Amino acid sequence: MTQKIALILSFFILTCCFESKNSSHSTTGIVSNYYFIRHAEKDRSNPSEPNPHLTKKGLDRANTWSAILSQVPLDLVYSTNYHRTIETAKPAAIKNNKEISIYDPNTIDYDTFLKHTNGKNTLIVGHSNTIPKFVNAITKNTYYETIKDTNNGNLYLVSIIDGRISSQLLKFN
Question: Transmembrane ranges (predicted)?
């Protein structure tokens, strides 16, 4: 299953990165790819805990995300400052020998973020409400709604090629 997902992801990356030879406008060849995921399954045993860790299932999903993204040479890895998001990002960060950069979804400046990540492959881990908001902000659309609380399997792919933006939602539940 993971190999099939990696193949689909590789195909998406290749189709996003290559332009038709018949294109009539000049390009600079700058490609920015973003991989947005919600944190994996969190421990819900204590509903009053504001910062739970991942469950065993969540840790397994974090490793699966890392395997799915194994064909992507990540340049940057971002996470909100919560155990569950950091633990979700960690396997992919380790695999790519990258530090996890912390971002605050309430104060992030999307234009500054886009400038900093221009031309890079970037993983962003967040929450059911912040990931769709982030994707909508950088795609300048309102396609994506809040993720259901029981859904930890969405992968939002966003590519910006010479200023042209495309996005796709893949579901792995």
Answer: none
